[in-house]
Prior knowledge:
Blueprint: H1 2-10, E1 15-20, H2 26-37, E2 41-46, H3 66-75, E3 80-82, H4 86-89, H5 108-111, H6 115-130, E4 134-138, H7 142-154, E5 160-164, H8 184-205, H9 211-222, E6 228-237, E7 251-259, E8 262-270
Parallel strand pairs: 1-2, 1-4, 2-3, 4-5
Antiparallel strand pairs: 6-7, 7-8
Helix pairs in contact: 6-7, 8-9
Adenosine monophosphate is lined by residues 20-21, 27-28, 30-31, 137-138, 140-141, 164, 166-167, 174-177.
Amino acid sequence: MQKLSQSLLQQGKRIGFVPTMGFLHEGHLSLVDVAKKHSDVAVMSIFVNPTQFGPNEDYERYPRDAARDQKLAQQRGVDYLWMPEVEQMYPAGEQTKVVVTELTRGLCGPFRPGHFMGVATVVAKLFHVVQAQVAVFGEKDFQQLQVIRRMVKDLLMPIEIIGVPTLRDPDGLAMSSRNVYLNEEERKEVLGISQAIQAVQALLKNGETQVEKLLAVAKSILEKSPHLKIEYLEIVDKENLEQIEKIDRPARILIAAYIHQKRFIDNGALE
Ligand code: AMP
């Protein structure tokens, strides 16, 4: 992949990159559309990165279907699909990590120790191989997007990062490879997350800017789902991800919740 990228760059091609963990859905494919708009050659990687999963998380169970992914990627116009092996991404004896500090202290950070170190490290490696001029990430993983932006700035990486709004199913559920874990009943309950976000967005539109009030409404909606356990529910400054009391600048509501050991995250703009 590195040699291929070098040759593409020598030919004057602009490379657009979409890193994923596969089991592709329309959300992933919308990133491909954006990558293609900003480049001559679209590269997608599929790599279920072991270092971003905690010991009790779903690394082994994470859904995988290479043949299906290949077909979907090709249909959508991905020019090169790269599926590295764990041993290639992590050479024997590896001991180098990328750590983004402040931005990973809150939200998912404390609940998934080491997660963002795994993400930043693997994305840095992927970037070094693919050498794209532009990479596309989803706002679905909003903290991740801000972590990547910070890493690129701090490590002076010559790549532009584009964030793409979350694609949702018609009922509002954010598309995710992990949605296949849900049965019908669970799915109904998980919908409380996107409903809470929408309700808060509607309240803000009507002029409510007090974070305490907005969070109370979100909480009451989430509590209508009896098996849904809130991990965090926060409204933060969009840039530094720090909690705010009043929406007087671009902000974001972020929610993580569990149902029967299965974890879901979602977020929405409050601007
Ligand atoms: P993943 O395969 O879950 O690691 O996701 C790969 C990329 O797709 C990340 O940049 C995600 O933020 C993005 N993504 C995941 N779900 C969605 C969605 N529903 N809409 C838009 N982008 C998404």
